[in-house]
Amino acid sequence: MRGITVETKICLIAPYDEIEILARQVIREMHADIKVYRCPIQEGVSLAKKLKVQGVQVIISRGGTAAAIRSQVDIPLVEIKITGYDVMRAIGPYRNSTETVGIIGFENVVRGCRVICDFWNIPTREFMINGAQSDIDWEDVRDSAQKLIDTNKINLVIGDNVVKRLGLKTSSVQMISSGEESIVQAVLEAQNILAAQDEEKKHTERFRTILNSIHDGVVAVDETGLIDVINPVAKQIFKIKDEQLIGRPIKEILPNTRMDAVLKSGVEETGQLQQCPGGYILTNRIPILIDQVVKGVVATFQEVTRIQDDEQKIRQSLYAKGLIAKYRFSDIICNNDRMKRLIELAKEYSKTNATVLIQGDNGTGKEMFAQSIHVNSARANGPFVAINCSAIPPQLLESELFGYAEGAFTGAKKGGKPGLFELAHRGTIFLDEIGDMNKELQTSLLRVLEERKVMRLGSDTMTPIDVRIIAATNVNLKKQIALGAFRMDLFYRLNVLNLPIPPLRERKDDIPLLVACLITELSRQYNWNHEAFPDAVIPFLLSHDWPGNIRELKNVLERIVLSMQAGQEPVSEVEMIMAEACSCEEPKAEKVFFSGTMHEIKRKAVAVVMQEVGYNKSKAAKILGINRATIENLL
Ligand SMILES: Nc1ncnc2c1ncn2[C@@H]1O[C@H](COP(=O)(O)OP(=O)(O)OP(=O)(O)O)[C@@H](O)[C@H]1O
Question: Quick one: which of 275, 262, 385 has its CA closest to 325?
Fold first, then answer.
């Protein structure tokens, strides 16, 4: 048996020659891929062990050898049974005998013979050999069997191979040998086992691949709380180094998973936060119910930060454009001390996560400040989401801010839609013109500020969000509170840190620097020589009050550049522009609009509306029902 090489998955161990010969013949006829080994009964176990090591998956054997292998080797074993035919073949010649027949052998042999002898009324005396082969005292067995023969004057003994081995003194011994059909049956059974094993292996491998490829940790326990599945992610989450975890109590390995509690209660626990070595994880514990009886529990674990990262990636990929802040503090042009102090203050604010309220007239640079705070903060890599609360109708603003669930209303997008708060997760949301938000939305916003969670319209689940809020207003919120139009509690929640941006008329010392920088920018845009800009214009600019602030200044400078490019004389053109701008501050009687050419009337209309909307071209275009380009042409 030394140096066995095995390619086949099934082997037959024949304990005696007759069975070996018959087995080889049957296997040949069946074209079965089975190797046959002839092996003495006492060496069957060690051969089976060797074959197992070499990859054999099923062993076929018979009698005592089969019993020994089954009890000592962990390998599927198919026994070549003693069939009724085998016994009948052996006893048949003696069926008219009135003499007592001795039946000696292992249990299966004795029982088989007993049934047939009883059927033919043959008197019998039995000796059953019990126990595993290795524990049997064969001397003792021989003595006892011989005693049975002698006492009962038995001339014929029926049994299998062991009877031969015992060397009993009796007139004749009739051997029961397994016939062809027993071997055929054993071969078919072994082949079925092998096929089932292969199928099982495929399932196990598929299951293992799934478990190992998913990003969640998975642990399953049986009904007694012993681990029967644990995937690598679960080990990683819980920082478990042990290799051997299967079969160990969950309580010992992961004491706080509450899987044992679910085993007892049979009630699933989903979406729970649980502490683990690296922080918190989100876990689901589901009982395995078979016929309403808890047969185990499966738990899944997801790292919260990973979920947030994934959500962030999805959010960012869905809204790749428009969520980036472009301004930084260095873009805010100023010379004024108050402004410089405000920038320093805003830089300090950017180091915190606290809510900021920016107050200031239209066009003073509130959004520039908001963007700069975001860019200067630890959230710089997160999204910057800006929304003008006055530009969107209130009913749309709600779903814009909070999103909606699938089926929340007719026409709701499949899968729902995330709101801007969700989009701003791990970043900053800039709520411009917050003073225009209606009271209902103010209440919802207050809830978000307090709970840091949002609920989509039509949904019943809250999504935790990590968003820094910066709000801005051009109206006096305290006055709004007094009028009952703004919630006082919301005001205090928003006004944690405050940035009051002064209007340009209160910081005219900013004008020369602003003009220099903005003219350089414009000359680049219009391919114009900025040195041609006449200093003589500056006093005119300084004398104006700039109700539209820097936005208005930018617009006026743009007009100056364009008119100079068109060959106009700068100072007189500026005088005209400034006169127009001033006239817009206090609109004259309507007839002013209708004097002059059509073009002039249009220009005046645009100028009046621009002033009303704080020189916001988009807003003016919306009000006048024309596009931005037309506005730009008329300026
Ligand atoms: N100090 C500044 N330096 C350079 N540009 C400025 C400055 N302040 C404002 N601006 C420019 O003026 C325009 C208006 O600025 P911004 O949108 O930040 O103002 P706002 O106060 O948020 O206006 P609104 O209230 O109308 O939304 C922008 O084009 C911005 O670049």
Answer: 385
Do 157 and 104 contact (CB within 8 A), yes or no? yes
Q: Whose CA is nearest to atom 25 of ligand 1?
A: 362
Q: Which residues pair with 431 in a beta bridge?
A: 387, 471
Helical ranges in 44-105 per DSSP H: 44-53, 63-72, 84-91
| Residue closest to 323 by CA, chosen among 313, 333, 332 | 313
Q: What is this structure's pTM?
A: 0.50
Answer yes or no: is the C-beta of 465 below 6 A from any ligand 1 atom: no
- DSSP 8-state code for residue 539: H
> What tens digit of pLDDT does each residue of 385-427 get?
998 888 777 777 888 899 888 766 655 566 678 889 998 999 9
Residue nearest to atom 29 of ligand 1 (CA): 551
Ligand 1 centroid to residue 366 C-alpha, Å = 6
Query: With a 6 A CB cut-off, is 551 part of the ligand 1 pocket?
Result: yes
Is residue 161 lining ligand 1, measured as CB closer than 6 Å?
Answer: no
User: So where are the chain's domains?
Assistant: 10-80+184-192, 84-177, 214-298, 329-502, 505-634
pLDDT digits (tens, 9 = 90+) for 156-206: 899 877 787 788 888 788 888 778 888 999 999 999 999 998 888 888 888
From the CA of 522, how far away is ligand 1's center (Å)?
Answer: 16
Q: Name the CATH topology of 214-298.
A: Beta-Lactamase (3.30.450)
